[in-house]
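Sample entry (229 residues):
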Amino acid sequence: MKLAIMQPYLFPYLGYWQLINAVDTFVIYDDVNFIKQGYINRNSVLSIDKAQRFTLELTGASSFKMINEVKVGANTKKLLKTIKHNYLKSPYFEEVFPLVQKIFGQEERNLAKYIGHSLQEIADYLQISTELVYSSAVKKKDSLKAEDKVIDICTVLKADTYVNSIGGRKLYNKHRFKEKGIELKFLSSKPKEYKQFKSNFVPGLSIIDIMMFNSKADIKIMLNEYELE
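Predicted structure, serialized as tokens:
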């Protein structure tokens, strides 16, 4: 069984979705410390010919709290207006915007579950069948840290392969995983340009941008444009 573990990100970029699509079970790492200025509650969308950052307001956010201890704030209507304004003339706006509205309009205030629900909604839209689970629901040894904690989660969930983004090369050792009977793989995304508006292509934006400009069939192809090392 292939498994991946990542912190919950708000409308994450393509590589995050490639990772979800590449595994059988995706663990939403919600019982680790919240990281300020990261991608947990922010991302970027297209604004004419450049990236525009948007940030989900939070209450009680602190690097001393777990992600699942932080609450969602009250600026979702403002974010929806921004996204509507930026993408109103995109080819898949009428199909995708109701999904974005549904995600932002949910009543859940727990940040981890709020983003977890959004990941499930988008996975359903993209017809990704990967099982999503929260790390806080896994009966692991919470005293463990970093690599040891990841290996423990893999062991508890009976994974024989752990897939991480390419940046994990600096964090994880293939030999350590092999000792526990787990094969460690790194996913290297190979994204391609797609037509946005008439401006030059702006890469690395939120999945919102990809869904607004591409059909589900085209996105399915994009989800497999990576290498496992």
